[in-house]
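Possible regression after last week's pipeline update?

I re-ran a chain I had predicted before the update to compare outputs. Posting the input and the new output here so someone can diff against the archived version. Not blocking, just want to make sure nothing changed silently.
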Amino acid sequence: MDRPIRNILAANRGEIAVRIFRACTELGISTTAIYSWEDRLAIHRYKADRAYQVGTPGAPVEAYLNGDGIIELALEKGVDAIHPGYGFLSENAEFAEKVIDAGLIWIGPPPAVMRALGDKLRARKVATQAGVPMVPGTTKPIEDLEEARESAAEIGYPLLVKAAHGGGGRGMRLVESESELKEAVRSAKSESMAAFGSPAVFLERYIVNPRHIEVQLLGDSHGNRVHLFERDCSVQRRRQKIVELAPAPNLDEEVRQKLYDYSLR
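New output (post-update):
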């Protein structure tokens, strides 16, 4: 039998933590906030039932990245569950595992899922196995230029060189022709290594003027899954989302339903 959650610690700050606390209040669950010294007057500190400083002055970001310290505090203060919000430790599978191993409840995807989807090549494999249509691309990291040329000829131009372990537009290069491929692979590998600690890159067909539509999902530990509809994130600058619209405007209803179905798979 699952044990009840009586107190949730938000391993985050600001508006993200405030939203978590608001939901907890509506559910009758008490809340615990953490804050860095620099955030000692931040609103999220005062929206929780109790709050504790983490980290030391002069390290406002590092305070929220100290997973071991956050877990130690949670155990000391009788917290039942940790909610990471987004950003910071939210996509850190090792932190999620440590939370679970400590006997706390992790509010988020299982570590195995985080690892699979944190690696774009593994994520592509998962999607393919689930029967979800994919943009043509390589199935393993590009090792050398000759392999890149052969794969690019098969995929077709234009294409993208993409970091396998990254995000946010880092480690990504648009290649219009074979003459640009060598430099694109070299620079993408270099940037990926600097930003994510991994030089692994792969190739993927570039879709010109696409619509970027995401489907939100919610699942529980019993295998129940639902979608929370979609949002259009097509307005971007340097491959970074600026505006998100929900529901997605001017979207064919049949396409909309397919997006829901594929996402739940």
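Follow-up from reviewer: compared with the archived run. The first helix runs from residue 14 to 27. Marking as no regression found.
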